[in-house]
Design a protein that fits this description.
Layout: E1 4-8, H1 17-36, H2 41-53, E2 74-80, E3 85-92, H3 98-107, E4 122-124, H4 125-134, H5 148-162, E5 178-183, E6 189-195, E7 216-219, E8 227-234, H6 236-242, H7 244-252, H8 258-271, E9 284-291, E10 296-303, E11 307-314, E12 321-326, E13 338-345
Parallel strand pairs: 3-4
Antiparallel strand pairs: 1-5, 1-11, 2-3, 2-6, 5-6, 7-8, 8-9, 9-10, 10-13, 11-12
Helix pairs in contact: 1-2, 2-3, 7-8
C-alpha cells in the first residue's frame, strides 16, 4: 500500500514561515524513510515528531517554553490505530524527546505484567523521568533543553509578571504544539504530538499534548471500516475541556464529506462548545487523516489560530508539499475556523 505522513508545526510569526516549511518537510522525510524501510506508522510518527522536537524553532523538546521557575517540562502522546493503544507523558523534565517516552509507554501496553499489574499509559513528572532512565531513553540536564530564544522570552515575561503587567502579548508563535499523522503499508494509522506548553506555565501543568482523547486520536482497528488519525494544536486547556481529538476522530470516521464534517465539528464542538462558554478567544487546530474503505484519502487541517504550518508526503512523492494556512486578515483570531486540505487515492 502507498504510505503517507503529514506533520504540523503549530502557528507562528510570519517572518518564520520559510523556516517552518523547511523544518516540516524535513520531518516528513524522516517519517517516510521509516515507512519505506518497512517500519510501522507508529514508528514513523515518532521519527517525524522527534525531528520537530530537536529543532529550537518549535515549542517542543529542545527550545520549549519555560515554566515560571525556568525549567522545560514536556508533554507528549502517541496512539496506535491498529491496537487503539495510547501512551503519554506530562510535565516531564530532562527527557530529550518526550515523544520517545510516549512511544515506549504505548508499546508496553501490550505487555503482560506479573501478579495482574497493569502497565501505565500515562506518566508525569518524576515518575515519567524515572521510567525514561530505566528504559535507556536519552536524558539530559535541564539547561541542555533551554534555547537562547526561550530563555530570552522567559526573562521578558517574568519581568512583566513581576511588575504586575496584565497585558502579556504572548507572540502567538509560542503556543504551538507539533504533531504527525501517518498510514503505513499495512493500512495502519497512528498519530502523535508534543509540546512545551504555554509561556510561563506553572510547574506541573499538563496540557492536551499528553492527554488521551485531547492531543491525539487514531483508529484503524477494523480494516473493513474507514480509518482516521488526528493530532491537535492550540491552547491546551481549551483542547482538554473539549477532548477535540476524539470528537473529530469519532465524528468524522463515517462521514460522507470529511472537509465539511471537519468544519462542522470545529464550529459546533469547539467554537460553540458549552465547555468553553466562558472563553472569548478559543484557540485550537487539528491535523486530520481520513482513509475510506476504497482507498480515498483526505489530509485536512483546521484552525482558529492565526496560522498553522503543515507538510505532507506520500511514499511515491519526490518531495514533501508544505503550506502555511492562515486566517483572513479581517477575521478575529479564535472566533472562526479555516479548513483546507488535499484529497487523493492510496493504492492498496
Amino acid at each position: 500500500m502507498t504510505t503517507f505522513i503529514a506533520v504540523h508545526c503549530g502557528h507562528h510569526n510570519e517572518k518564520n514561515h520559510p523556516k517552518y516549511n523547511k523544518l516540516a518537510k524535513k520531518a516528513c522525510r524522516a517519517g517516510i524513510k521509516i515507512l519505506k524501510d518497512g517500519g510501522s506508522a507508529l514508528d514513523a510518527v515518532k521519527a517525524a515528531v522527534t525531528v520537530l522536537e530537536n529543532d529550537p524553532l518549535t515549542n517542543a523538546g529542545f527550545g520549549s517554553n519555560l515554566t515560571t521557575n525556568g525549567c522545560v517540562e514536556g508533554d507528549a502522546s502517541i496512539m496506535d490505530g491498529s491496537t487503539l493503544f495510547y501512551g503519554g507523558c506530562g510535565a516531564v523534565q530532562q527527557v530529550k524527546n518526550p515523544i520517545e517516552l510516549a512511544h515506549n509507554l504505548c508499546l508496553k501496553q501490550s505487555e503482560t505484567l506479573p501478579m495482574g499489574l497493569i502497565p501505565p499509559s500515562l506518566l508525569v513528572a518524576d515518575g515519567a523521568q524515572d521510567h525514561a532512565k530505566r528504559e535507556g531513553l536519552k536524558t539530559c540536564l535541564n539547561k541542555e533543553l533551554i534555547s537562547p530564544k526561550a530563555l530570552k522570552q522567559f526573562y521578558k515575561y517574568k519581568k512583566l509578571i513581576d511588575e504586575h503587567e496584565n497585558t502579556l502579548d504572548q507572540d502567538g508563535e509560542r503556543m504551538d504544539t507539533v504533531g504527525a499523522v501517518c498510514i503505513d503499508n499495512l493500512g495502519r494509522v497512528a498519530s502523535g504530538c508534543s509540546s512545551g506548553g504555554l509561556i510561563m506555565k506553572r510547574p506541573g501543568r499538563v496540557g492536551q499534548a499528553a492527554l488521551y482523547a485531547s492531543g491525539v486520536w487514531a483508529d484503524s482497528f477494523n480494516r473493513d471500516e474507514p480509518s482516521v488519525a488526528v493530532c491537535t494544536t492550540g491552547c491546551g486547556e481549551h483542547l482538554v475541556q473539549t477532548q477535540l481529538a476524539k470528537e473529530i476522530g469519532v465524528n468524522i470516521k463515517y462521514c460522507g464529506c470529511p472537509t465539511t464534517e471537519l468544519y462542522k465539528i470545529m464550529t459546533e464542538k469547539f467554537l460553540k462548545s458549552r465547555f468553553l462558554h466562558n472563553v472569548k478567544q478559543k484557540n485550537g487546530g487539528a491535523l486530520v487523516l481520513h482513509l475510506s474503505k476504497n482507498g480515498e484519502c483526505s489530509i485536512l487541517w483546521a484552525h482558529s489560530t492565526e496560522s498553522m504550518s503543515v507538510a505532507y508526503m506520500k511514499s511515491t512523492d519526490n518531495q514533501p508539499k508544505s503550506t502555511i494556512s492562515q486566517l483572513p486578515d479581517h477575521v478575529e483570531v479564535g472566533s472562526t475556523v479555516n479548513v483546507s486540505g488535499n484529497h487523493f487515492f492510496l493504492q492498496r
